[in-house]
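@channel anyone free to eyeball this complex?
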Amino acid sequence: MGELDFGVIARSWPYLLKGLKYTVQLTAVAAIGGTFFGTLLAMARLSSFKPVALLAAGYVNLMRSIPLLLVIFWFYFLSPILLQSIMGWERPPQIGAERSAYITFVMFEAAYFCEIMRAGIQSIGKGQASAAYALGLGYLQTMKLIILPQAFRNMLPVLLTQVIVLFQDVSLVSLLNVTDFVGASVKIAQRDSRIVEMYMFVAIVYFMLCYSLSTLVKQVQKRIAIIR
Amino acid sequence: MIEINDVSKWYGNFQVLTDCTTTVKKGEVVVICGPSGSGKSTLIKCVNALEPFQKGIITVDGMSVNNSQTDLPKLRARVGMVFQHFELFPHLSITENLTLAQMKVLGRSKEEALDKGLKLLNRVGLQTQAAKFPGELSGGQQQRVAIARALAMDPIAMLFDEPTSALDPEMINEVLDVMVELANEGMTMMCVTHEMGFARKVANRVIFMDQGKIVEDDTKASFFDNPRSERAQQFLAKILHH
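replying in thread with the prediction:
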């Protein structure tokens, strides 16, 4: 084994940064989109209208039973073909790996955020909704103004923990040849034969980012404990 | 004002209300009492449609509660309700608790809602607490805010669902005082409560419920002096004996 050369990081810095930027972007979009659609799914799951509740439960259970990697492949390889046959197009549409990853992650994370938000909504006593209805507020107003703000606050630590998991899971898109942070590093490692250096560097960056996020989670937990 | 006609309700196969009929006239104060599980809370929650019922008719100020044509939020906004566990919104300040529904349901401006809310807060003696959050107030104070919040909607009637039974003994009177004052001003009230002192002071009528049925529905004087049913006699003996 030759000398270690960490200069490779500095030399390929712009490329690595581009990868890191994509990773952060995909995480942010999946977290925000997942929370939004997950909240809608949670409301659907708790709906007293059975067909809606069953449909949402089916979606969530399906997504949570399939490995993320399979969902990524499914969406990337099979959905263009599926779309083609449904729409009767001559050629499969070009969705592209990067766009496909955004859609896949939002859809996948929505299932997990749904379960978190569902627990959050259920953690708010039934009396809160009764009080809101008694004042004349409708269902959507009650959800938006009374239940969801409290549910969201109660679940914030869990939501952030899920974001940490999501941030790490995003690295799977490198298998679609997307240049996320891991994808960029792997390419540099192979091109320059600096595998040890690059993989160590990636691990350290991931550790630092995730560790600071989990420190944030602890802070948030303390803040919430005081408010209550 | 409130007409309850032959109302029955089931949870699955279990019947919680059986053929309940009574009327509350404008300005009348009716106290509902009875052992726990007798259906008194359920009945009062049927009045503003927080609980659905399967048989019978309830009308509030001429609007039918269980008619699908009725605008329920509108009906509920006209009937104030006070809950056993206060149910103030813990993520909102006292001021926001008082103004939220005024603005969102009645479409009042922020100034108008604030003016109204603070006047009522003043009336229940808590004007200095406006900026606080519910968690910073005592139970008695929270319940007084809850009453002010309901009054801010200018209700035509008020429903009280055991408003003092979650309170420490020393806080019960501050809430009852507000309720007595309200009754003396002529508010139409239905109160589920075990506070017989309150009933003696302001009630026009007392309804006694047992096992989902209205067993007695009588003037205050005849209910306390010679309750007709054995169950009401036993109930009164139990709660008045200490």
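from a first look: Residues 169-184 of chain B form the longest helix (16 residues).
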